[in-house]
Design goal:
About 70% of the residues lie in helices and about 0% in strands. The chain has a two-stranded antiparallel ribbon. The chain is built from 22 helices and two strands. Helix 9 runs parallel beside helix 10, helix 10 packs antiparallel against helix 11 and helix 15 packs antiparallel against helix 16. The protein has about 475 residues and is an all-alpha fold.
Length: about 475
């Protein structure tokens, strides 16, 4: 039962929601089944982890029906019924947390039941409510489109006179929704072209005739698209400035879209201007952190957490990064929290040149997440190399670690051949460098820089270049 749909959803409830669900399921309106309630009360004792061996199906059935032989279908039926009530509870929660959505559905019910006077009044109230909102996003335009459309086409609405304005408003809001949503989706397509080397036929110019006038979201999305298509610093700085000035009006979803493009641009400039754009990226990460933009499904993004630790420590913001790790680690998903925190501390220690601390952190720790494990193994190898620079006895450790890392990468199923190549090239070059140093040959006798720059991809390329030139 540990991986059942029911247990998975129950795990996702926070303590207050779980406590409220207990009251919800015990309401006679939701169930009067004693068997069902006994089963839930049994499961309730294992919240929040639900990892006890006592949750095996046979054991659970035995607790409910002590003198009966195990009956799988009977237990599955009870679990199915609890799951249905739980899904209804999730819908209830969603409506409780969204006043507008609750009122909108209620108004649709008024319309279907031909409660015409109430329907008209509530439609006008909802439109007025939307007009008071400071932010004009796709949800605003789409909700207005539906309200005006449904009111105009309702059987009780006159098709003559002033009511035609509702039809006009509906069309205008639909056009504005289309313009912004198409631009949002198009940005993602163009972004994929850059990241994954895909080809997509997206042209923004074919819908300039239909767009929301003086809409700040639309204007900034156009600027973001300009960043992606022109790849110029001027477009980046313009978009960044306007985004920061108007960030308080953005929904989290739109803020994530804009911020991710700005961050990607900054990080892509590292090979050319790392000093400048690492500072830009760090500032953007701080802004995203302060506005909770990196929170998704109640958890802080592990990628954002690690990138903040990496970039901040490279900028020698050691105290700030250390405080960030301590104060924000509890926002991480529990299933990956320990992995992420250990790796973040390793990046901090590495950039503080405390290479021994890195080896101490990773010496006996077993990572659960394979991608985090790859980063951990690579930073451990680099730490061994830095220790090797001071003590030649670490040379064999670097080479053996590279050999082990190569085997790990070749077997790792989460990486395709193209993604494995940079790590394998990294190991190849680092082993060559160590061997030449162990043999006390001058590194410049072999043009490692030429090899480095002619590989199709190399992990930690700038770091390798530094040690070649040192």
């Amino acid at each position: 039962m540990h991986n059942s749909k029911l247990i998975t959803i129950l795990k996702a409830l926070n303590p207050e929601e779980f406590k409220q669900f207990h009251r919800y399921i015990h309401s006679p309106f939701n169930t009067q089944s004693t068997e069902l309630l006994e089963l839930f009360d049994y499961l309730r004792g294992y919240y929040p982890d639900f990892d006890s061996p006592k949750l095996e199906r046979e054991h659970v059935f035995q607790q409910l029906y002590q003198k009966e032989k195990f009956n799988g279908p009977r237990l599955r039926n009870l679990l199915f019924k609890i799951n249905k009530i739980l899904e209804e509870y999730l819908i209830y929660l969603e409506f409780q947390q969204n006043e507008y959505r609750r009122k909108k559905v209620l108004n649709q019910i008024y319309g279907k039941r031909n409660l015409n006077v109430i329907f008209k009044k509530k439609t006008e109230e909802l439109i007025s409510f939307l007009e008071k909102q400071p932010y004009r996003d796709t949800a605003y335009y789409y909700d207005n489109y539906l309200l005006c459309r449904d009111f105009y086409f309702h059987p009780a609405t006159s098709q003559e006179g002033a009511f035609v304005e509702y039809l006009k408003y509906s069309l205008e809001h639909l056009n504005n929704f289309y313009a912004i949503e198409r631009l949002r989706l198009g940005i993602d397509l163009v972004n994929r072209e850059r990241i994954y080397n895909e080809s997509h036929d997206f042209r923004v110019n074919d819908f300039f005739s239909v767009h929301p006038k003086e809409n700040i979201l639309y204007q900034i999305l156009l600027q973001v698209l300009d960043v992606l298509t022109t790849d110029t610093e001027a477009s980046f700085y313009k978009a960044k400035k306007d985004f920061i000035q108007n960030i308080s009006f953005f929904t989290q979803e739109d803020a994530q879209l804009v911020l991710q493009v700005l961050l990607n641009y900054s990080i892509q400039q590292f090979p050319k201007k790392e000093d400048v754009f690492s500072t830009e990226a760090f500032e953007l990460y701080k802004i995203g952190l302060s506005k909770s933009i990196f929170i998704k499904d109640g958890y802080l993004s592990k990628n954002a957490f690690l990138n903040i630790a990496v970039i901040g420590s490279k900028l020698k913001e050691f105290e700030w990064v250390s405080n960030f790790i301590e104060t924000n680690q509890n926002q991480l998903d529990k299933s990956i929290k320990e992995d992420v925190v250990i790796l973040a501390k390793c990046f901090l220690a590495f950039n503080k040149a405390d290479y021994q601390a890195v080896t101490d952190y990773l010496k006996d720790y077993q990572f659960k997440n394979s991608l985090i494990k790859i980063n951990a193994k690579s930073i451990l190898i680099r730490s061994y190399y830095k220790l090797f620079e001071e003590d030649n006895t670490y040379g064999k450790m670097v080479i053996s670690s590279c050999n082990a890392f190569e085997k790990f990468i070749k077997r790792e199923p989460s990486l395709n051949v193209k993604k494995k190549e940079p790590y394998l090239n990294f190991c190849f070059l680092l082993k060559k460098i160590v061997n030449y140093k162990l043999e006390k040959l001058k590194i410049k006798e072999v043009d490692f820089s030429y090899v480095l720059n002619n590989f199709s991809g190399v992990f930690a390329k700038s770091w390798l270049q530094e040690i070649i030139e040192s």
